[in-house]
Amino acid sequence: MCLGIPMRIEHIDGLQAQCSHDGEVHLIDLALLPDARVGDHVLTFLGTGRRLLDAEEAGLIGEALAAVAAVMSGSSADIEAAFADLVGREPQLPAHLVPPARQEPAA
After folding, report:
1. Distance between first and last Cα of the chain
2. Is 36 in contact with 9 (CB distance < 8 Å)?
3. What does the angle CA 41 – CA 80 – CA 51 come to, to the nearest 5 degrees?
4. Contact (CB, 8 A) for 6 and 44
């Protein structure tokens, strides 16, 4: 399973950023995010910033990751609370993965 980790940009030097997550600092490549600024939240994967996040979305992702980590370590977690934004709705594909509408042949 591959997971993106939300981090907060603390310092930028060219296309590299020092980002914080859970009290640790990580060096992240910002080549895909030229508009990123200090203080922004960024979704990271394999040392690269993939997408800018607002603070609320970064928090939701952080809560979900903490719940997954708790379950993996054998602790209990309130999964419905951690994934509250997903409860009661069908998952949706990103627009670029939605197949085009099929046209029915004329009768």
Report:
1. 46
2. yes
3. 20
4. yes
Half-sphere exposure of 17 (CA within 13 A, CB side): 30
Q: Which two three-digit tokens encode residue 50? A: 């993939």
pTM over 0.85: no
**Could you give the C-alpha distances from 89 to 37, 62, 82, 83, in angstroms and in order?**
33, 20, 15, 11
- CA–CA gap between residue 69 and residue 58 (Å, rounded): 16
What are the chain's domains? 5-82 (2.30.30.140)
- The pLDDT tens digits of the residues spanning 11-52 come to 999 999 999 998 999 999 999 999 999 999 999 999 999 999
In angstroms, the CA 57 to CA 51 distance is: 11
